[in-house]
Records
---
Amino acid sequence: MKTKFNQSKLKLAIVSAMLLGTAAITAPTYALDANLSVSASIGTACTISTSTLAFSMYDAVGANASADLLAEGGVTSTCSIGSSGNIKMGQGSNSGADSSDSTPLRRMVNGTDATKFLSYSVYSDSARSSVWENATGVAYTGTGSAATLTVYGSVTQGQVEAVVGSYSDTLVVAINY
């Protein structure tokens, strides 16, 4: 079988292919620029945790007849750099009748007799002169790292009405920012 080629059509095809190839090579290219805006913000964020304020054995008729029973605990906070606020401590679950946020009258309750209490105080300083309360609290400034504040506790001396047993209370500690 013989195939006939039409020379004029073949030439036209070759010339067309060359023109298209040349046009693709010489076609101008364009580049456009655009700016992409990038932004972020950092809000104040904090975490807070506590370590137990655990008093040893209270001896109302011996060692603690004339001396308060002392103990230490802790409040650890981690807050964004540049944040600030106050760490406040509630009155406790068993506060006295005249207790308030600014003047807390804290008491631990006996585990078996809910009518028996052991009065105590919580302070923000080692001299035990600044009561840690819920009105103003203790100021902090965020550093981005964990910061631990010592909680200084004191069970009032001479509480001879306290009965034998275990006493406890729960304080809510909040960080306001």
---
Amino acid sequence: MITGSAPIAPEVLSFLKIAFCCPIVEAYGMTETTGGSVGTMPLDPTSGHVGGPVANVKVRLRDIPEMGYYA
């Protein structure tokens, strides 16, 4: 299963992994770039993060001082 339309609470995701007894991949992406830019590994037991970039995506962090964000 894949979830990616909105953030899902880690407690809910952990429950669903147990209830459905199958891997659930959390993914994130934008329609403008690709359906899934980052995603968890299918057998990752932790919940609450979307994992790393997929093989065909390059990720770059940059500073945005006006928002107080520094890579």
---
Amino acid sequence: MLTNDGQENMRVCLINPPRIHPKSWGKPTVFQPLRIAYVAAMLEKEHKVKIIDAPTEGMNNIEQIDETKYRVGLKNEQIAERIKNWSPDVVGITIPFAGWSKTAFEAASTVKNVDKDIVTVVDGQYPSARPEDCLSRPDIDFVIIGEAEHTMFELVGALDEGNMQRLKKIRGIAFIENGKKIFTPSRPPIQDLDSLPFPARHLLPMEMYYAAVKENPIRGEIRKPWTTVITSRGCPYNCVFCSVHTVDGRTWRARSPQNVADEIEQLIRTYNIKQIDFYDDNMTLDRKRMESICDLIMERNLDFEWYIPTGVRADTLDEDLLAKMKAAGCKRIFIAPESGVQRVVDQVVKKNLDLRKVENAVISARKVGIKVACFFIIGLIGETKDDIKATIDYAYKLKKLGADRFYFSFATPLYGTELYEQAKRGGFLREDFSDETLAAAEPLIETSEFTLDDLHELCAQANLVNLAFSWDKIVKFIRNPKKAINMILEKRGKLLRK
């Protein structure tokens, strides 16, 4: 396998497995697996790499699993055919969410059925939170715990050499040797994110993403050539429901403004990108860095629209920063109060966020011309039905202040989170709780304060805030009544499905 020039020693195929899509989310859309593309870029330094983005390449293969969810993506036979044709030595499969573990393990089984000697590796949030469960699967050879870029590179290099002793020196992996589970010491988070190569988007089906959003715009906004960019990783906060730390840790690390601007410039030049979603967990945590990114975008005349759909902390924003973000092309931000009750935010969510800062951020964003969407979570342990009703009232308050979209999610006890431990310890998990029920976007926690049916009803009430009409919308609807009726019916259908 080793070549004289040290290049393309191994053939590595990285798979984004088929997605389990909740019916309540409406029509499936596409997502670019950026973390896989980061791993691919690292591996390309010495190996031959291929990416199979199964949900996108098979986006027209939609199979109903049950009354709550679909399977979206390439069929197992199609994955097998691609593996057979390309003959990889190693296959890496990413599992970013427990609800998609079923299709990931099916993909691993498919690979082994093609050739049992292919080495299978899993990484992502689920393997990082539940490595032992992954190791118990007969078709999984290695588990990566934490960030995968350096770990996968070292792992493939050791496999290339066939050096078992070197394997044991790789930090952040788990495997079985002679029937015994081996866990190596944990790998520290990558401190210098600028040292990572830009994601290998040339291995992704970029044209398919463009075609998909043109037909079905993401959030109704992303409809042009687009991509995602990550400018920072990690979160120093302790929200009970958040699983980010299982992979990225609790230390916030950021790329330099220069490095971010270089990537954006490359994207516009190479891929004609017109819209970007920044997928940071805390993009605005460092105000000066955020200002510098905006300054460089304007100095280089980088013409594109951008959004932060993963959320920013409201207490990092003010009118001056938002005005600069608007001037640099920002169209929408998402903020996450989580609850409209300060006690719940402080003691239940443990978010350490003053709700007055949320209101100020909404007012300031509206003033400078940036649209605001808000995330809320209902059904947390320690929350009451009255708290949830107060949260709905708070959403209406934010709507009056200028926010225009509201997303209400059931509290989801993801593995590796404090919420999961609370629910498991207190006996609050739904009786049929499993990886598969996690995929359905259904309530999974029931306490003495609320039932599952209560949460369904309250969520339907909460989503009515999105149906509240402003006068400008009424005028538009009068001019186009057919479009108005179709929109009302579509939103009504989504509420009923919830």
---
Amino acid sequence: MPLPLLKLYARPDCHLCDEARAGLESLSAEGFEFQLEEVDIDSDDRLLARFLERIPVVELEGEIISELVMDRESVKAKLATVSA
């Protein structure tokens, strides 16, 4: 069974994005299993327009579950539901 896909929409030199990345890495270290795909919103004008004021945005299996500041508890809860 494939691992759940978490996408982190971010951009370079974004301290909130760095914090979200570190938070996701710590969840992985705690035993939460997922694939992490980081998407640089600067690489696509549509993504830039959609997410610029909202990054970092964390998406799980197509559903946005956190934006602006990573909601660690929400991400953990959502991961638990897709991993169960």
